[in-house]
Amino acid sequence: MKHSHRFFSNRDCEYFPCHQGVPDEDYNCLFCFCPLYFLNDCGGNPQRTAQGVKDCSACTLPHAPGGYDRIMQRLRAEFARMREAKD
Which of 33, 43, 71, 72 has the fewest CB atoms within 10 Å, measured from its CB? Predict the structure, then answer.
């Protein structure tokens, strides 16, 4: 499969799909835990709980088509920013 490193779907997971709004055949489980979670401005649409914790249950960014590319682009940008700040 071309670009198989960009997509993984685990339909046997007891939580599949863990977020609504993405068709099952397009649902990407590769980033089961979003690598952008710890960024204040992650690019998704999280809500904050009363304790300040992000609630990402309404976000489909890592699971929707194109999510892999958006996340990797953002990670590259964040790492470049961190390298520049270090110098």
Answer: 33
DSSP structure class, residue 26: G
Longest dimension (CA), the chain: 46
Radius of gyration of the chain (CA): 14
Q: Is there a cis peptide before residue 46, judged by omega within 30 degrees of 0?
A: no
Q: Would you tell me how many other CB atoms lie within 10 Å of the CB of residue 30?
A: 15
**Domain segments of the chain as ranges:** 4-86
The Cα-based distances of 60 to 7, 10, 20, 81 in angstroms read 14, 16, 8, 25
Question: Six-digit token pair at 67?
Answer: 């999510």
The per-residue pLDDT for range 17-68, each reduced to its tens digit, is 999 999 999 999 999 999 999 998 999 888 888 888 899 988 999 999 999 9
CA gap 31, 71 in Å, rounded: 9
